Amino acid sequence: MGKSKALLVLFFFFLGASFHLNAQVTFDAKVSKKRLGLNERLRVDFIMNENGDNFVSPAFKNFLVVSGPQQSVNRSWVNGMSSFSKTYTYFLTPKSKGTFILGQAEITINEEVYKTFPIEIEVTEAVEKPNDPNNIDYLTDENIRLVAEISNSSPFLNEGLTVVYKLYFRNPISITDVQELESPSYGDFWSSKINIGRAQVNPRGRYKGEPFNEVVWQKVVLYPQKSGKLDLEPLTLNLSLTVPSNRRDLFGRRILRQGQKTITAGRRILNVKPLPLEGQPESFSGAVGEFDFDVILSKDELKASESFQAKIKVDGKGNLNLFKLPEINVPNTLEVYEPERSEKIKTTLTGTQGSIEENYTIVPQYQGKYPIPQIQFSFFNPKMKTYKTLSSQELIVDVYEGPTSGIPSSNKIVGVSKTPLVISDSAFRFIQLDTKLNPIKTDSFWLSFRFWLLFSSAFIFLILGYLINRFIIQKSEDSISTKQRLAKKLAKKYLSSAKKAFGNQVQFYEALERALHNYLKAKLKIETSELSKAKIESLLKDKKVETDVAKKFILVFENCELARYAPGSDGSIKTDYERASRVMATIDRQL
Question: What number does CATH give the domain 138-272?
């Protein structure tokens, strides 16, 4: 009997525990997936087993609420046991890639506040075919396409190709707004976008043979910068659209509802071929396309110390921004300055085309005829799959009316014959001792012929003085001042080029010495051939420049001469550059 009572007590204990467990309140959050693409939708359900009030949803900071909350209630009876559930449902679209935390939701049940646990959601790149049937609007999937049309999926290295992104849609879909969620970065390409202005809808577009409305969304020209398989990142758009619902109004017409759709063009892979090594010329510097090449002189006859321009020009179609022009090679007696580059380039769907030029200023120091040797320019033609080399003509520059270059003297002069010296009787004249005086005529000087001759000669000299000053002296001064401004400009230019050549000791000190020479031309009005250390110091002192400043200037010259043959450090190079800048500024103030 005692044993049966114990079993009965145990039975009622487990029965009460089961009722307690059945009566326990639950409030959970469930998601359709924890990892989704940027163009997929996420379903979030907040489920409770007892009815509650004051539901508060999370903030959904990194998501766009497509629809919700949708509320549903479910009651059921199983084996005499009742069950209850209430659900709040949201459909979300991610705004960007990344890992995000879905915050807590709150509900008040029986005067107690319950919260869900946070959920971590990972958003990846857009996928080509979203595969969650709960999150796909099949109507929009059948009637909307985003396509990337590529002109050449297997280009050569540095060969241009175009990508056109087109959006296709058709009835019953209507698009009200488009936002670009993700743009390709084109990390392995040199890229140039083509401005298409406002997007226009072409109602006669076709996609895979079927009629669609067509919108050209973006055009871009790409030049691959490395060979191999390169990824072309997808373009992702978020569309605001209207779609018909199953409901109808009083007149039997379908009621339209607003919706959101994220669509992607998908990732594409390009197979970039390397340029062939066989037959590659030494003068090849990376030009790929179809080009013409020429070297043009501004004049081929000039005086010494005048300047002329040599223009190296390449025009055509290809990667004009991505290669170097060949350098000009002239005799050492011609002074060549850094070239000025100019570009006239435009980018269209057919690629980049136009011309690039480098204009060299050249100043001859001595008279003579100077040859400008041939210059070669090589490029790779991707259509012919071969290299081509173009050569300029050999040009001659005739320099006249100037100093001649130094010619070594010799003791013997070849080609000169000796002739006897003939002395005439009048070669030596003796002083005449007898003086013969003639009387001076005492005619009146006033209004005589000599009077009018002297009087008019004064006006003639005034007119001649004006003409000489106007057309000779002023023109000479203008020429001198022009040369001074040019020399000063070139000094600053070479000083800046010296700064760029910090990594190359020889180039740095050559540029620095040229800058100092041109500076002295501008300030002391002397030519380079006159410059010596003693002459420089003397002229600076004559110009009231302090002795210490003049010596510092000479010291910079000496450092330039020594540093060409003695190894130096980056610190000494920077010190000489700063010293030259300070001493030139000090001389400017003192002059």
Answer: 2.60.40
What CATH code is assigned to 22-124? 2.60.40.740
The residue type of 503 is G
> How close are the terminal C-alpha atoms of the chain, in Å?
129
- Give the domain ranges of the chain: 22-124, 138-272, 291-400, 473-590
Q: Are 88 and 46 in contact (CB under 8 A)?
A: yes
184 vs 252, more confident: 184
Q: What is the pLDDT of residues 223-252, one digit of tens each?
A: 999 999 998 888 889 888 887 766 777 776
Mean pLDDT of 3-30: 60
Q: How many helices (H) and strands (E) would you count in the chain?
A: 8, 30
- For residue 341, the cross-strand partners are 358
Nearest C-alpha neighbor of 342 from the set 356, 325, 363: 356
> What is the β-pairing status of strands 27-31 and 351-364?
unpaired
Distance CA 128, CA 50 (A): 41
Confirm if 218 and 242 have CB atoms less than 8 A apart.
no
Q: When comparing pLDDT for 80 and 120, which is higher?
A: 120
Residue 209: Cβ within 10 Å count: 5
In which element (H, E) is residue 34 found? none
The residue among 298, 367, 322, 299 whose CA lies nearest residue 223 is 322
Answer whether 138-272 and 473-590 agree in fold: no
Q: Is CATH 2.60.40.420 the right assignment for the domain spanning 291-400?
A: no
The whole model's pTM is what?
0.49
For residues 215 and 244, is the Cβ–Cβ distance under 8 A? no
- Selected residue with higher pLDDT from 181 and 312: 312
